[in-house]
Structures are given as C-alpha cells and as structure tokens.
Write a structure and sequence with these properties.
five-stranded parallel beta sheet, 15 helices, 3 domains, six-stranded parallel beta sheet, 14 strands, single chain, Ribosomal Protein S8, Chain: A, domain 1, alpha/beta, Rossmann fold
Length: 389
C-alpha cells in the first residue's frame, strides 16, 4: 500500500506500519504526487478535489483537522472515495488560545472579564467547550448557531443560557466580546462565508472585541479593514485570514493580536488528529491497529492549587502558563514587511516550524477538597484533577 502524508502531521510514522509512506508539503501537492497512492492523509491547507484525485488510486482521504471545507466531500462521495476528518481533535487548543487572548486584551484595556458579555457564534466542538468554561465561571454568555437553534440543542453545553439561542444581530449589538467558531460554508442552511460583512461589522458595540480563530473568510477582511480605519475603539484578534497564506499587512497593523493560523496547533491536538485518522484508516482498510499514537510526557505533570485561589485567577494563571500569544504575534508581524510572495512562504514556514505547545489537559490539578468552583472550572477546561486534603 502507498500512503501520501502531509509533512506537518506529527506521529505520521504510524501509517508506515501498513505500507510505503511518502511525506510531502501539503499546500503544494499535485495530481502526479498522489496518482499511485492508495491513501492520502492531509491537513487543512490541501484542497482535495477532482483536480487532485481524478484518475488516481486513492480510496481513502483522511484530514487530521476539525474542518472539512478543504475537502470536496460531494465529489469524493460521488467518486466512491471514503473520507474522514477529526472533529474536536484540537478544540481544546483553540479554546486555550481564545482564553489567553482574552486575558491579554483584559490586561491591555484594564478590563474585568467577568463584567463583559460574551457572544459565541458557532456552537460546535470549539464553541461548546468555550461556552462551558465561561459558564463555569458564571460569566454572561450568548450563543448564536441557527442550525442548532433549529433542533433546540447544544450538545456538550451544560445548560443553555436563559434566553437560549439568539440571532447574530443580537450578539453584535449586545455583546462586548464576539468569538467566531463556525465552519466555512457557502450554501446550505447557514452560509458563513462573509457572515460578518461591512453592514454586520458596523453593528459592533463601542469598545467591543472581535476574535476569529475559526475560518478566515467568515469575516470579510476588506470590510474589516475599512471598519477598523474608521473605528479605533474596536479590538480585533485574528488567527485566520481570508486569503491564507497571504496576510494583509494593513489589516494586521490595525489588529490587537495576529497569529498565523496556529490556534489549534498544540502538540496534543495535532497528535489527537493523527490518532483519530489512523483509527479511521485502519477501519477502512480492515487493518489491525498496531499500537496507538504516543503522547510525550508533559513538562508540568501536576499543579497544587490553594483553597484561596478564585476560579478567575486560576484561569488567568493557567492561560499565561500554557500559552503566550505575543510570541506568535511578534513572529507573524516580523514577516509583514516582506514582499507578497515572501510573506506567503513565511506564513507557511511559521506553521511548519511551530514549536511544541502542550494543552492544559496534559497536566493534573491538585485541588482543595470540597472546593466546587475550582473543580467545576477544571472540569470545564477538560483538565485532570484530584482532591487534596
């Protein structure tokens, strides 16, 4: 069996247990690269469609990512090619990115997060987990997700806010912080491409914060630049960009925090994605799973927490301990003076050479016995915890 794998997939050697492995840059894969392959394992930078796979031997496509907008699933289904993605694999990593960004903005603006109202647009794997954390802290949360509203459910959310789901207009007009976590769709019940266009962006409350760690084209980047040129009161965090790997330097200059699509780039999240696709690969080809994917031991195995620690203070300390977004911000900004093509190459290089970042859940918390607020926060964060006398 021949297997083509994106070079940015960690622990990809597990696939070599079952065949000949070819490792290539995912963004530059060609039809010739995959023509003789039986399986293709990618991340989100590879457009998997008829142009890439028509006439090839590929019978299985696995994407070690949450999203599927880079997969032409309709064509794959019609061509009889089985595909699989890894929903939720890096959701915790994205949530930790958002929490760290919020702490950074709170420090800059000398704002108290518990006094702000949060709007989560898109209540899938990431949105659910973020909502659970904010709910555990007792903070005000509004949820917007028309497809889930139609069913009246938000799986994974402990309890819907009293008002249930709300419209996008209500989020934009009433929330101080808007976090975007939708998939990218151009049709269907909820088209999200340019979900935030010029008209929607103008509805943002004075002094509000907008964070996009989902998909770049969900926000009209040209319209966002125009709005930011008119309104200095807004603070924007962008991890994803409409025309990746090309970042608009003018837009980046007006953002509070910019990063090169690495919100979900924790080592744990990436390995989890590999593991999920390896399992799907083995099921499809009816192969024996030859030992699972291995996770490295974390540098911080356990933390003891004082009984006097308020939950919001614990969140602040954990956020700064596990992820420092300014490092990634500085790395991306350092590339923005390059010419257009060099910027694109640098963007991909920052992702390819991204350092090791572990998730909070790799560390166990030792919590005071009976301290329900701290225990609820640990559970919402997905962390392991145990009581100490």
């Amino acid at each position: 069996m021949r297997i083509v794998v994106d070079e940015n997939i960690p622990e990809a050697s597990v696939f070599a247990r079952h065949g000949e492995l070819t490792v290539l840059p995912g963004r530059h894969l060609t039809a010739a690269d995959v023509q003789q392959a039986d399986a293709l394992i990618v991340r989100s930078v590879t457009q998997v469609n008829a142009d890439l796979l028509r006439g090839s031997r590929v019978g299985f496509v696995g994407s070690c990512t949450i999203g599927t907008d880079h997969l032409d699933t309709a064509w794959l289904d019609a061509a009889g090619i089985v595909w699989s993605n890894a929903p939720g694999c890096n959701a915790r990593s994205v949530v930790e990115y958002v929490l760290a960004a919020l702490q950074l903005l709170a420090t800059r603006h000398q704002a108290r997060l518990e006094q702000r109202r949060f709007g989560i647009v898109g209540v899938g794997e990431v949105g659910q987990r973020l909502a659970c954390v904010l709910d555990a802290l007792g903070w005000q949360v509004m949820l917007c997700d028309p497809p889930r509203e139609a069913t009246g459910t938000a799986p994974g959310v402990a309890a819907l806010p009293e008002q249930g789901f709300v419209s996008l207009d209500e989020v934009l007009e009433q929330c101080d912080v808007i976090c975007l976590h939708t998939p990218l769709t151009s049709s269907g019940p909820w088209p999200t491409r340019h979900l935030l266009s010029a008209g929607q962006l103008q509805k943002l409350r004075p002094g509000s914060w907008l964070l996009n760690a989902g998909r770049g084209p969900v926000v009209d980047n040209k319209a966002l630049l125009q709005v930011l040129q008119q309104r200095s009161d807004l603070s924007v965090v962008l991890d994803v960009w409409e025309n990746e790997p090309w970042v608009d330097p003018q837009l980046a200059a007006r953002c509070a925090l910019v990063t090169p699509h690495i919100a979900g780039y924790s080592l744990d999240g990436k390995i989890r994605g590999t593991e999920m696709i390896y399992q799907a690969f083995c099921r499809h080809f009816e192969l024996e799973v030859k030992q699972g994917v291995q996770y490295p031991v974390p540098e911080i195995k356990a933390l003891s927490i004082s009984n006097s620690m308020p939950p919001e203070k614990l969140l602040q300390q954990l956020s700064s301990m596990f992820y420092q977004p300014l490092k990634d911000d500085a790395a991306l900004r350092a590339t923005l003076s390059l010419d257009v093509q060099a910027r694109a190459v640098a963007f991909d290089r920052l992702r390819k050479e991204y350092g090791v970042r572990r998730e909070m859940l790799a560390t166990r918390l030792c919590l005071p016995a009976g301290n329900q607020p701290l225990q609820q926060l640990a559970q919402a964060l997905g962390m392991q915890w145990q009581e100490e006398a």
